[in-house]
Amino acid sequence: MVAAYFFDNDDSVDFRQPHNSGKDVSLDHLAKLGVIYKHLPSQEEVDSLAEQRGYKNRDIMNLNAARFDNNEQLMVEKMKVFYKEHIHEDEEIRYCMDGDGYFDIKDSVLDRWIRVRLDRYDLIIVPAGIFHRFAVTTNNYIKALRLFKDEPKWQAINKPEADQNPIRKSYLATLQTA
Ligand SMILES: CSCCC(=O)C(=O)O
Ligand SMILES: [Fe+2]
C-alpha cells in the first residue's frame, strides 16, 4: 500500500533504501503539488481512468536485476538515469503492475523531496513540469505500465535546461495560485 514521507536527504545511503525521515506526507499535500495517487486493483479501473484522461497509448517497463544479467552494479548504473531529477513536458503516468518502486517528488514550495512508495496496483500521475526521480526498492524489481496521452515517448529534461523550460515555469505558476 502507498507510503509518502519526506526524504531523509542522507545521500550516503543507497538510493534504493527507504530514506524515511519519519515525517509522513498526506495524499492531500501531494494533490496540492498536482500529484495524483490512486489504488486500482483491476485492469478495468486502469482502462477507465485512461479513457477519462485521454491516455491513448501505453507500454510496459520491466525493471529487474535479471535484465542486467543479474549484474546488480550494472543495474544500479542504468537506474541512475531515472534517479537523476528531471521533468517531462507531459504528465507521467505509471501504474505498478507488480513489484514496487519509489517516485520522489520535489516539493518546490518547501524545497524538500517527498518519497512516494508505490506497491502493486498503485498508480501515480506526476504533472508536467514537476521535478521528480525514480528508484527501485531493494527488491530491485518493478513491472510498470506507462500510459501516455500521445506517442509513447520518454524524454527527461534535466537541470539546468529544465529550470528555463516553459512547461516548468507554467507548473511553478500553478503553485503560486494554489
Ligand atoms: C518504472 S517507470 C521509471 C520512471 C520513469 O519513467 C520516469 O521517472 O520518467
Ligand atoms: Fe520521469
Automatic annotation (TrEMBL):
Entries under SUPFAM superfamilies matching the protein: RmlC-like cupins
Entry coiled-coil feature ranges: none
BP GO terms, sorted: L-methionine salvage from methylthioadenosine
Record flagged with keyword Repeat: no
Cofactor comment text: Binds either 1 Fe or Ni cation per monomer. Iron-binding promotes an acireductone dioxygenase reaction producing 2-keto-4-methylthiobutyrate, while nickel-binding promotes an acireductone dioxygenase reaction producing 3-(methylsulfanyl)propanoate.
Matches recorded under Gene3D superfamilies: Jelly Rolls
Main location: cytoplasm
Pathway assignment: Amino-acid biosynthesis; L-methionine biosynthesis via salvage pathway; L-methionine from S-methyl-5-thio-alpha-D-ribose 1-phosphate: step 5/6
Reaction(s) the record says it catalyses: 1,2-dihydroxy-5-(methylsulfanyl)pent-1-en-3-one + O2 = 4-methylsulfanyl-2-oxobutanoate + formate + 2 H(+); 1,2-dihydroxy-5-(methylsulfanyl)pent-1-en-3-one + O2 = 3-(methylsulfanyl)propanoate + CO + formate + 2 H(+)
Pfam families: ARD
Enzyme nomenclature, EC number: 1.13.11.54, 1.13.11.53
One Gene Ontology term of the molecular function aspect: iron ion binding
Alphabetically ordered keywords of this record: Amino-acid biosynthesis, Cytoplasm, Dioxygenase, Iron, Metal-binding, Methionine biosynthesis, Nickel, Nucleus, Oxidoreductase
Biological role: Catalyzes 2 different reactions between oxygen and the acireductone 1,2-dihydroxy-3-keto-5-methylthiopentene (DHK-MTPene) depending upon the metal bound in the active site. Fe-containing acireductone dioxygenase (Fe-ARD) produces formate and 2-keto-4-methylthiobutyrate (KMTB), the alpha-ketoacid precursor of methionine in the methionine recycle pathway. Ni-containing acireductone dioxygenase (Ni-ARD) produces methylthiopropionate, carbon monoxide and formate, and does not lie on the methionine recycle pathway.
Family (UniProt): Belongs to the acireductone dioxygenase (ARD) family.
Listed name of the protein: Acireductone dioxygenase
Source species of the chain: Zygosaccharomyces bailii (strain CLIB 213 / ATCC 58445 / CBS 680 / BCRC 21525 / NBRC 1098 / NCYC 1416 / NRRL Y-2227)
Gene that this polypeptide is encoded by: ADI1
